[in-house]
Amino acid sequence: MDEFKNILVVQTAFPGDIVLTTPLFKALKKRFPESRLSVVTTPQGLELLRDIKEIDSLVSYDKRGREPHIFRFLRLINKLRKESFDLCISPHRSFRTALMVYGSGAGERIGYSDAALPAIYTRKVFRDNNLHEVERVLSILDPLGIESGRLDKMPYLEISSETWGRTKKIFDDAGISPNDMVIGIAPGSVWGTKRWTTEGYASLIDRLIERYDARVILLGSPSERDAGDKIIALTRQRPVDLIGKTTLRGLVAVIDRCSLLIGNDSAPGHIASARMVPVVSIFGPTVPSFGYYPYGKDTVIVEKKEIPCRPCHHHGPDKCPEGHFLYEFENEDTCYKN
After folding, report:
1. 3-state SS string over the chain?
2. Which of 90, 162, 273, 285 could potentially form a cystine with 316 if both were Cys, beta carbons 3.0 to 4.6 Å apart?
3. 203 and 100 in one domain?
4. In this structure, are 143 and 12 located in the same domain?
5. The pTM is what?
6. Is the distance from CB of 160 to CB of 52 less than 8 angstroms?
C-alpha cells in the first residue's frame, strides 16, 4: 500500500465546486494522517477553506489577476516544485490545471481520464457522469485503495470564532434576535440564465415576511448590487440587505444562522448544505442530473421540467439562446425533495 507524506490537491474551479470537493480533504487526511496536505485554489477558495483543519497549507492562484498570466503561473510552479510533493490529485479537468499538476513535480499524479492532457497523469480514473459531483470527486481516490462508498460524503465548511463575532454584530445591527426565523435569499449567479427573475424573488420575499413573519436576508456579492436593488424596489416588505456587505467567509456564517436558504443553482446553496442548512434550489438552464445540486437530505429542487430546450448548457449561458427565458413555475409538481 502506498504511503504519501506530502500531498497536493489542485482545485481552482468555481466556489460551489470547491465546496463539493471538501469531503476529499477529510478522506485523504483519514487515510494518510501523518501527511502534509496542501491545496492550490482561487482567492475565493482560500476564504472558504481557510478554517478547515485537515488542510495544512493553502496556496492561492488568482486566474484573473492584473499581472500577466504567464508570470503568475511560473511563480506558482516554482513555489510548488520547492515543496517536493510525492502525490498530486486534481478533480479539476482544465488544460491549465493539467499543467499545474505536471509542473508540481509530484511523482504520482491522479486525475480523470477525460481531463485535458490525460497523459500527464500517472493514474487515471473514469469520471462517471451518472454520479453526483461529490461522489465523482471521491472516486478519484480509488487508485489509492480508498473505497469511496465507505467515506463521509457530506461537504463541510468551518467557521472561526473571529468570523462568528463579526457575523453576530451584523445580526445585532439589523435587529435580528436569536429567536427570529431567518431565511436567506441568494438571487445571484455568475451565469445570467441561472438567475430567477427579480419579480419572482420580490414576490417571494413579500410572501415569506407577510405569511411567516420571517426575517429575510438578501445575500450576494458586490457584483450583484444592481440585481439586489431591483428586487428591493419591487418589494412591499423590505428585507435585510447584506448584498456585498460580507466577505465570503462571513457569508458562510450568515447562512449558518438561517433556517432556510433559497437561491439559484449556485454557490450559496452548496455553502448552506455544507453547514446543514435546508436549501431550496431553483434550476433553470441546468438540470439536477448534471450532479451539481446541493448535496444533502434537506435539499428541495424547483424546476420546470417540460421546457423542451433544457438543459441548454452545462453552466447556463448569459442569455437565453432561444430568446424566451421561460421561468414561470405553475404547479407543485415542479417542486420535489432530493
Report:
1. CCCCCEEEEECCCCHHHHHHHHHHHHHHHHHCCCCEEEEEECHHHHHHHCCCCCCCEEEECCCCCCCCHHHHHHHHHHHHHHCCCCEEECCCCCHHHHHHHHHCCCCEEEEECCCCCHHHCCEEECCCCCCCHHHHHHHCCHHHCCCHHHCCCCCCCCCCHHHHHHHHHHHHHCCCCCCCCEEEEECCCCCHHHCCCHHHHHHHHHHHHHHHCCEEEECCCHHHHHHHHHHHHHCCCCCEECCCCCCHHHHHHHHHCCCEEEEECCHHHHHHHHCCCCEEEECCCCCHHHCCCCCCCCEEEECCCCCCCCCCCCCCCCCCCCCCCCCCCCCHHHEEEC
2. 285
3. no
4. yes
5. 0.92
6. no
Answer yes or no: is 157 within a domain: no
Average pLDDT over residues 127-138: 96
With b for 16 or more beta-carbon neighbours within 10 A and e for fewer, the 246-284 pattern comes to bebbbbbbbbbbbebbbbbbbbbbbbbbbbebbbbbbbb
Residue 182 and residue 115 in one domain: no
pLDDT (mean) for 2-30: 96
Which of 274, 252, 315 is closest to 22 using CA atoms? 274
Same domain, 140 and 176: no
Contact 196, 189 (CB under 8 A): no
88-121: pLDDT as tens digits: 999 999 999 999 999 999 999 999 999 999 999 9
Q: What is the pLDDT of residue 133?
A: 97
Residue 198 lies in a domain: yes
Q: What is the pLDDT of residues 154-165, one digit of tens each?
A: 999 999 999 999
* Count of domains forming the chain: 2
Tell me the pLDDT band of 335, cut-offs 50, 70 and 90: very low
Residues 135 and 209 in one domain: no
Average pLDDT over residues 142-153: 89
Domain enclosing residue 322, as ranges: 162-337
